[in-house]
């Protein structure tokens, strides 16, 4: 198979969905820079993931999808052409973007063969399936780069390497800085905005009480909407602190980086902690395709816990993960 040389060229990585999915796409950027040091990488994503993308050392330019949406199709075509793109990788399939990139006559347009509209818009269509695969989501993304020289999917250890030095870029507000107490700090992120099955709130509250007895300061994070769901139930303790709704995403990244650990289900902040090299403890079901084999956090200090029911897995198995087991992993 002839390899496409991206040296000195511009490639777009397009992933226009959620924070966790974007993080699991970042290893593509690291691999491309290692393989082609002079390649220019543009990442096309949603505006709310920009603060994540700014932390990557391998992205040369970020384009927000929303910046294009108010322009006419013809104007969007001109914008794509002005970027002088050599290859466009549709990591997250988007019918409009696929039509746009073809209209702009980008030379190499890569998208999975499992989308009918890619048959008419992409000229490189790798044939692979995600749903029943034994590979991790971040590994499967590399199927889209095989024309650039990928011989085999990277190991999970290599994925960590390709993330690179993921660094916070936004300073903390005075309000958040004042909440950082001396000693051990841990973030409990109880919600997922519906993207994953969640560990029960009462277990997080029980965990928080045990943690403060061990000398931790516990921070409950989330959006303002999520905070409304739990803040009135938080124990009254000087070292149990609600930070929900108090930060931008960029500030939350910086705050997590100042902590020792984070506990959450399969959601964006869990993946952020992992790439920040903070101990990231993820709570999962063994049910496919939500299982940790597909969605565990990428990081040298990440741990994925399940109820160990792989024989007959159910969504609600996550409820069976004990507080004591989570506590044990935190203290290891």
UniProtKB/TrEMBL annotation:
BP GO terms, sorted: lipopolysaccharide core region biosynthetic process
Keywords: Glycosyltransferase, Transferase
Pfam families documented for this protein: Glyco_transf_9
GO molecular function, one term: ADP-heptose-lipopolysaccharide heptosyltransferase activity
Highest taxon listed in the record's lineage: Bacteria
A single cellular component GO annotation: cytosol
TM annotation in the entry: none
Name used for this protein in its record: Glycosyl transferase family 9
Species the sequence originates in: Brumimicrobium oceani
Organism placement in taxonomy: Bacteria, Pseudomonadati, Bacteroidota, Flavobacteriia, Flavobacteriales
């Amino acid at each position: 198979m002839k390899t496409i040389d991206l040296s000195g060229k511009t490639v777009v990585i397009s992933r226009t969905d959620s924070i966790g999915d974007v993080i699991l796409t970042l290893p593509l950027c690291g691999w491309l820079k290692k393989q082609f040091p002079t390649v220019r990488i543009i990442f096309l994503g949603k505006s709310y993931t920009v603060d994540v993308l700014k932390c990557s050392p391998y992205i040369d330019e970020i384009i927000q999808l929303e910046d294009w949406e108010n322009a006419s199709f013809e104007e969007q075509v001109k914008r794509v052409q002005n970027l002088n793109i050599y290859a466009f990788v549709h990591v997250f399939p988007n019918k409009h973007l696929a039509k746009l990139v073809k209209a702009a006559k980008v030379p190499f347009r890569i998208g999975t063969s499992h989308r009918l509209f890619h048959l008419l818009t992409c000229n490189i269509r790798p044939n692979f399936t995600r749903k029943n695969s034994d590979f991790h989501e971040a590994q499967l993304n590399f199927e889209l780069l095989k024309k650039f020289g990928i011989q085999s999917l990277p190991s999970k250890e290599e994925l960590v390497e390709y993330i690179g030095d993921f660094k916070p870029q936004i300073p903390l507000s005075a309000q958040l800085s004042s909440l950082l107490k001396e000693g051990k700090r841990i973030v409990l992120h109880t919600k997922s905005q519906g993207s994953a099955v969640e560990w029960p709130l009462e277990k997080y509250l029980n965990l928080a009480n045990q943690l403060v007895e061990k000398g931790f300061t516990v921070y409950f994070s989330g959006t303002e909407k999520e905070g409304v769901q739990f803040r009135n139930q938080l124990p009254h303790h000087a070292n149990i602190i609600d930070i929900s709704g108090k930060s931008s995403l960029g500030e939350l990244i910086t705050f997590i980086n100042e902590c020792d650990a984070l506990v959450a289900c399969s959601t964006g902040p869990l993946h952020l902690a992992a790439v920040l090299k903070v101990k990231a403890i993820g709570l999962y079901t063994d049910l496919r395709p939500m299982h940790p084999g597909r969605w565990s956090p990428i990081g040298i200090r990440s741990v994925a816990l399940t109820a160990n029911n792989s024989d007959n897995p159910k969504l609600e198995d996550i409820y069976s993960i004990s507080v004591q087991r989570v506590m044990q992993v935190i203290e290891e």
